[in-house]
Every structure is written in structure tokens, then in C-alpha cells.
Amino acid sequence: MTTLDAHSALAGEPVSTVPSRFGRRSITQAAIAAAVFLIAMFVLPALTSTFWVKNFTSAAILSIVAGATGLLYGRVGLVSLGQIALYGVGTWVTMRLGFATDWPYPVLVLIAGVITAVIGVLLGLPALRLQGLYLALVTLMAAAAFLVILADTKFPTGGPGFKGLVVEVTNSDSMRRPDVAETDFGFYRYVLVVAVIMFGLALAHLVSKPGRAWASIRHSEAAALATGVNTTTYKLWAWGLASFMTGIAGGLLAAHVRSPSTFTFGVEQNIILMAVVVMGGVATLWGGVVAGLLVAVLPELLQKWGFSSEWSLILFGTGLFANLLITSWQLDKAGIKE
Amino acid sequence: MLNTSQLFPFLISGLAFGAVYAMSGTGLLVLYRTTGVLNFAFGAIGAMGANITWHLIEKTEWCPDWLAYVACVVVSAALTLLYGVVFAPRFANRDPLGKMLGTLAFALILLGLMFNLWRSQDARGFRLPTGTRRFEIFDARVTWTQVVAVLFALLVVGGVTIFLRATKIGTAMRAIANDREISSLLGVPVRRVETAAWLGSGVLCGIVGLLLVDLFGSLDMVLMTWFVIPSLAPVLIGQMRYLWVTFFAAFVIGVVEAELNASNWGWPSQYRKTTAYVFAVGALLWFARKRTIMISGRATR
Amino acid sequence: MIEVEDLTVRFGGVTSVNQVTLTFPAGACGLIGPNGAGKTTLFNVLSGFVRPETGRVSAFGDDLLAMPDYARARWGLRRTFQTEQAIEALTVYDNVLAVYEHTTKGRAARQAAVLDAIGLVGLGDVAFARVGTLSPRQRRLVEVGRAVVGTPRVVLLDEPGAGLPEAETEHLGAVIRTIPDQVGAMVVLVEHDMSLVKACCEWTAVLDFGRLLASGPTAEVLRDPEVLKAYLGQEELQ
Known about the structure:
With 338 residues, chain A is mainly alpha-helical. In chain A, 71% of the residues lie in helices and 0% in strands. Chain A contains 14 helices and no strands. Chain A has helices at 6-9, 24-47, 50-76, 83-100, 105-127, 132-153, 184-206, 209-219, 221-226, 231-257, 268-280, 286-296, 298-304, 311-334. Chain B is mostly helical. Chain B has one domain (4-300): Orthogonal Bundle (ABC transporter involved in vitamin B12 uptake, BtuC), CATH 1.10.3470. Chain B is built from 13 helices and four strands. Chain B has helices at 4-35, 42-59, 65-87, 96-117, 144-166, 168-178, 180-185, 190-216, 221-225, 228-237, 243-262, 267-270, 275-287; strands at 134-137, 140-143, 294-295, 298-299. Mean pLDDT of chain B is 84; it is low at 295-301. In chain C, the strands form two sheets. Chain C has a six-stranded mixed sheet with strand order 6-7-8-3-9-10, sandwiched between helices. In chain C, strands 2-1-4-5 form a four-stranded antiparallel sheet, covered by helices on one side. The longest helix of chain C has 18 residues, at 166-183. Chain C is globular and about 45 Å long. Chains A and B meet through helix 6, helix 9, helix 11 and helix 14 of A and helix 4, helix 10, helix 13 and strand 3 of B.
């Protein structure tokens, strides 16, 4: 039986000040991010050709998709193997509206983002009762079904009707770009700015109330409910945000390649994306940037160095494998079983 | 207007593909229940084996065809066993998703290797001896491969059922599938049983690889690698638990897909390739109606 | 005050809680019983993780079973878990803040409230450390801090002392005893360590095989021969 007085037991200095969330580490991070952005914006285009700038544009677009997928997996604990299908939705909507209207390009992309988010949330509503492997599989299966339909429907080419297809495709039937970014270099910078905005949006969520709710959900359903988090709402919120980002990226792709092909939207792309996302790391948003570069630039680099671009598959596989081995070893060391 | 003579030939091809789904499903299911690993490299391993068979038939003088076919099964079993014995144990502390990601990495590596060893644009393929011989029933041409596929599927699922019930190692498998930790405490030789499961599922990989080349009429390694995705559909319908449900679901999917191909029913026929996925998504969502709350991976009591 | 009336919970063929009727008065109450007696199940019913087959549960006059699980935390029902559930990825401050912002309307005074709770459990010196870097004792206290922030009405503690050395349990006991007075919430404590129950709880209920064995003032209940029989061989009761 303890005889300790309650107050004397309460050791530790009382705290009265809360350090700013923008402490030293955050400032360093922000400085690195700013430096990377400035180099990508101004130094990189000066050093390279149109060919490489196009590849870096793809990398920036895919880094948004990868960032969204990584955020879901690393910060909320939700696995989506269907992100490429939502990416396709974003592209399709942008193309269709682009041909049907003369609305400014940013409006098209924004609408594509919103529609993709709505579709993502509607599909997520039943799927989010599942967890882990089952969630991964249901998203993969849904994406596979959707991509079969997309491959048949094809991207709009300026024709009438819902599908918007014309038989004779000419060069003029491609997606327009914004006036400020007509050239490949201009569009590259445009994409970079949008990517920064998207990552900023994700970051703003992570450091505030939703970020803390997601951390609880990722820890366990029980922890989340003890926190008072409405898990359904916050899971859907994360799902919606990731779908929105992915839809925006789809909109960017439409104007990047101008006449996208459904061949690039195979079901296996979902799996390759997951591999590079895990390889790039899901603990921070930087992983998304790394993943984007890996998937869009690495195959071209390999080809330039005289290897076939299929070596990238081997490298992605090995990278994913290495990442899993290291994290498993860390779990082992900490004596944790997932 | 539909008539049976129109639908019947497609029934045969549907049953054949259903049989392949059933064999893949059995291989995936038994391995998952025994080891906790959902093997995403199932298709890639079979494709690797089939490529080696093709290489032996077309590029070497000395190798008789029958040996080339055997090589497919042996290589597939060896690759599966390699992964199962060397790599899978390193991911023992991961959740099922982490374990699956490991096999996914293996699939990507294999696919990349195949691309580099045998360039994909070459039109390649081989026929099994059963593939060139046909007979007719009710105006439908049937190859012996199709017959063999269905018989083999029956043999496999029947054999596995008997194996699980009647043999010592089968009983051990069921025990592990039921409760891994308790089984290991009771002295079930977990590692040995797991190795057996990897081996068995590897042999199935090889057989499925051979049959797919013949049924598709060509050796398409990308198609074969990702054939694992629709193959998961019957496993999911069987709740990753019930072998015979998986078996019948596989045939239903195969037949529905083929019959949609035969008939002209507007959009269902147009999008027939979604059959397996639609079935799987429907099943998953149906089984997920009830929510259970998990505390650190265990359901609350 | 919590009133449980005719509560039955079944899992398949197992009856985990069997027609239990009991009342926890305000203050600090103990809930004890051998393993498998249904203590945690009762907690899970209170926090909404498990739906009972029959029965009513009300707390301070409000029907708990009518509320969705996440809304119970907002009503003022908080709990800790047998397997501690502090969120490793966040700092101590953010752990407590997360509960506060999801259970309390309006943003006023949130810093002060969060710091008060951290001070109450004695974690002031590690308030901005990530929970992943803390010791097991500190993690338990983070969970208690999460349970007392803001305006809780009922705090359920599920074996907070499990696995802690004696000296650390004493500190924990001191923290628990301050909750009714300083925070204004009633406490229900599930614990195997009888010294902790004796030190903290004026009132105790005993469950055995899902049935209520006894309830009343702690000292009386622990002398009850029925209770002693259920605990036969467990020396802590002496």
C-alpha cells in the first residue's frame, strides 16, 4: 500500500510554453524543399534537352500520384492498388471537358480532381470496411475492371457523344495546354508549381487535425475510437484527398502527352506504382518525389546508358525487396510483429 | 436469338479456362492458408518455366519435347521453393500485406529477367502434344488440352482434399492454417510443412504455365505474369478459406466469361473481361458487411 | 455513475458476460476478477466495440448503447487498453491534443488543457518527445493523459499497472487517485494488482465467469468468502 502523497508523486516540471511546429527541423526541411524546387525550376531546364524535360514533367506528375498513394499507405495505413485507375479518370474527364468546352485549363483540371475525388469516395465508402491485404485486393480488382472498360472506351479525341471519339484522329485533336505554358519547358514549370501546391495541400493536412486523426487510425482502430475520431469520416477524407491529388495529376497528364493512350494504363501499372512507392519510402512525402523520378526517369536513363529499359523492372523489384528486408530486420530488432 | 449450338463451343473453352483458374486458385489458396503468403509471383514463375520450355524446344537440338515440358514444372517448382525457403522466412514478422509485397517484388524481378532473356516482341509459343489433336462433339471442336485441363483440375482439387484429410503432412497443414502459434507449440513441424506447401504450389505454377501457353495459343509473358490477378478472384470468393467454393467459383467465372463472348448481349458481352474482377469485388464487399474492431490486429472479445 | 442492467454478451457459444446488473458510483471504482471473467468485455461494451445481446447501460442518465462508438469519447467516456494504445508516430503533446480536439467543441484554451493533462500525469519533461521513444511506464501515462484531457466524465483504465515495477505502480496509483477530484471524472479500474485497487478505489465489483460475484466498499468485498474462493491461491488478497 502506497503512502505517497498525490502531489509529491507528480514529478516533472510543469510546461507552459509550446514550441512552434515550425521549429528548426521544419525550417531545414523547408529550405531543402525550396532549394530542390528552385533547382528543378530554373537550373534543370537550362542543362537538359526537350526530351529530358518531358521525362521530368512525367516524373513530377507521377510524383503526385505516388505521393497520394504513399500518404494513404504510410500515414493512414490504407493500401490502394487502384490509384492508376483514378489517374485514368482524371485524364479522361479533362480530355472530355477539354473538347466539349472552352473553359480555361486550370478549371478543367480542378473539375477533374473534384470528380475523381467524388468517384474515389463513392468507391471507398464500401471498400474501407476492409483492411490490409483485403483492401489492397479489392482496390486492385476494381481498378482491373475499370481499366478493362477504359481500354475499350479509349480517351476522347474530340468527337460527339459520351465517349467523345472521332474515327479519324488528326494532330489537331489533341488536348490543349494553358496559354502560359504552351512549350514543353513552360508546361514543365507549370506542372512543378501544381505539384508543389499538391504536396503543400497534403502537408497541411498532415500537420493538423486530420493528420493526427490519421495517425490514430494507422495505429489501430481502437486507438482511433478512443481518440474520438470518426474513423469512417477520416478514412474517407484521406481517400478523397488522395483521389483528388491523383485526379489533378491525371489532368496534368492529359495536357502533357496531349493524346494519351490507354496502353499506358495497364492493371500492372498499379503494382509497379506500389513497388516504387514502397521503395521510395512512405514515411515522408519525399518518398513520392523519389518514386516519381524512379518510375519516369530511370527507364530512360537506363536506355541512355545502353541497357534495355526493362532493367527498371528488375531494379524496382530489387528495391522493393531491399526495402522490405530492411524494414523486416528493423521490426525484428525491435521485437515487433506486424 | 440464342441457341445452344452457338453457346456450346464456348462452354468448352470456358470450362478449360475455368480449370486453369481452379488450379491457380488451389495453388494460391493452399499456400496462403499454410504460410500466410499470397503468392503474386505465381504467374511470373509459370511464365519463366514456360519460357525455358520454349527455349529448350526451339533453341536446342538435344532436348526432346517431353523433357522440355518437364523442365517447365521443375523450374517453376524450384523457383517457388527458392523463394519459399530463402526469402519468405525473412518476412515472417510482416502482416499478410507485407508478405504479399515480397512476392510482388519477386514477380517484377522475374518479369524483368524474362524481358531481357527473351525479348517480348518475338512471336513465340509451343503446342503441347494434346493441343494439336482434336475431336468433335455436337459441332464443337475440342482439343485434348482442354480435356486434360479439366481432368487435371478435378484431379488436383480432389487430390488436395484427400491429401489434407488423409495424410500426416496434410493434417499438419490444416492445423497450421487453423492456428499457427498453437500448432507450432504442439510440435507440428511448421517449416517442413511450409516447404511442402511451397513445393506443391510451385508444381501447380508449372502446370498452369504449360496449359496457358497452349490455351492462349502463344507465350505472352506479360499476360501470363498478371494472370495471377484474375486467378485471385475465385480465391477471394472462397473467402481465402474454402477450397471447393474456390473450385466452383473458378469454373463459373471461366464459363460466364466465355458465354458472354459467345453471345451478343450488348455491354455485358463487350466488357466480359471484367467478369472475374466484378465477381471478386462483389464477393469482398459482401463479406465485409459486418465491421469488427481490431485492437493490434486481434478482433475484440 | 454507471448503471448496467441485465447485460449479456455472447461470442458464438461462449457467454462472456451473463446477466450482469451492477452500479458504479461516482469516484474511483475497481472491477476485478480472475482471467476470462468478462472485465475487458464489459469495458468493450461501454466503449462500443462490442454489441451486447441484451441489457441496458446508462452513464449519468444517458443511454450509452444508443451512441455510436466514436461519439462516446465526445460524450466524455475515455479509456485505456490492456495493450497500450498511445500513438507512437506522434509526440506526447500531439497524442493528448488529438483526443482534445476530437472530443471538445471550440478551440479555446486547448493548449492549456493539453498541458494541464500532461502535467497531471507527470510527463512535463517529455511533452514534446515522440511516444515511440518513451519507456513503457511513460507510454502508459501518455494513455492516462489522453484519457483525462478536457472534460471527461468516465475514465476506464484497463490494467494500467500491467508489467510495471512496484515503484512505478505507486506513482500510477497517485495519478489515478487525483482524477476524481482534479479532473472531475469517475474512474473504473480493471486491475490484477490488488494493492493498486485498494489504494485507489473506495468501491469494487467482482466478476467471475461472466457473472457478478460481489460489489460494495472495497475492503468489504475483498473479505467476502465467495470472492476469496474465486481467487483461491492468490495471495494478494490477504
